[in-house]
Design brief:
Layout (H helix, E strand, L loop, with lengths): L2 H17 L1 H37 L3 E5 L5 H12 L4 E7 L1 H12 L15 E6 L5 H9 L4 E5 L4 H40 L2 H9 L4 H42 L9 H29 L5
């Protein structure tokens, strides 16, 4: 396509948006409402997904060492654990460190510091894939010089099942909302194009090619999508910044936190803009197609 022709299409698409201002406003408004809902829902689901990831990453296996194991045996056990497939991190805690942690947790009220240390040394292990925690724990439990392996058996399975279910439901809802948005917006854009069907028929009758007719409408869809995405981007940005400043101070040091402002807001805003453009192009492309048969 020649640059002059492409430039003409751009000019015509801008003029058409202005000439059909009310129809363009209706289409852009439909895009705005839908993208606002999608943007807010995506923002919520991405943070919930981060909470799920944080919970998964906090799952660890506690390997208690036999009381009879000497330093050489403990070193050998540590090496054996490191050789287990799927291991991400391993931290060794001596009997003394375990006692210090217990006293710290209970404030020294149990009188443990006045007794002989009854605790065992332990290894704290995390799986590279939290979903494989149970498998990793069972492999470690078979190694020599391990007294017991604790990982929340039973509870951990329920946790992972719940998190996976929440992710699947969230993804399903987002996809359903997107398909609903595409259907509603394409119908709104179709109404705009129906009002101009005479224009399309005349251009077709005088010899204009299908793509020559279609491109200005597709460009209009792009402008409508961009216009419809501006307000959702502003609202989502302001909403999340205020939410982050209000909630995040109370979550410092907690198990989970909100996603940081950057690059999260850039990602969400880029997604909203791309969805707006895609929906506008798709709606225009599909709607004008039926009027190209004269």
């Amino acid at each position: 396509m020649k640059a002059r022709t492409l430039g003409r299409h751009f000019r015509e698409s801008f003029k058409s948006v202005g000439r059909n201002s009310w129809m363009s406003f209706a289409s852009a408004s439909a895009v705005t409402v839908t993208l606002l809902l999608v943007g807010v829902f995506v923002m919520i689901m991405m943070n919930l997904n981060k909470v799920a990831d944080d919970l998964e990453k906090d799952v660890e296996v506690k390997v208690l060492v036999e009381l009879t194991a000497d330093e050489k045996m403990i070193t050998k056990l540590e090496q054996d654990i490191k050789n287990v497939k799927g291991l991400e991190t391993i931290v060794y805690s001596t009997k003394e460190e375990e006692l210090e942690d217990l006293i710290k947790d209970f404030g020294g009220k149990m009188g443990l510091s006045d007794q002989n240390n009854p605790l065992r040394a332990a290894f704290y292990v995390k799986a590279s894939n939290p979903q494989e925690t149970e498998k990793l724990a069972k492999q470690i439990d078979q190694l020599p010089n391990t007294y017991s392996v604790e990982y929340g058996e039973g509870k951990i399975d329920k946790l992972f099942s719940f998190l996976n279910l929440a992710r699947n439901i969230g993804l399903g809802l987002i996809l359903a909302l997107l398909f609903t948005a595409m259907f509603l917006i394409s119908n709104t854009i179709r109404i705009t194009i129906v009002a101009r069907r005479r224009e399309i028929e005349i251009m077709k009758l005088v010899g204009a090619t299908s793509w020559f007719i279609r491109i200005p409408f597709v460009l209009e869809g792009i402008w409508i999508g961009i216009l419809g995405a501006i307000l959702p981007i502003v609202i989502v940005t302001v909403l999340y910044i205020n939410l982050y400043e209000l909630v995040q101070p109370y979550l410092v040091g907690e198990l989970f936190n909100l996603l940081p402002l950057t690059p999260f807001l850039f990602q969400v805003n880029a997604l909203i803009l791309l969805m707006g453009i895609f929906i506008g192009v798709w709606g225009s492309f599909m709607s004008v197609r039926k009027f190209l048969r004269v």
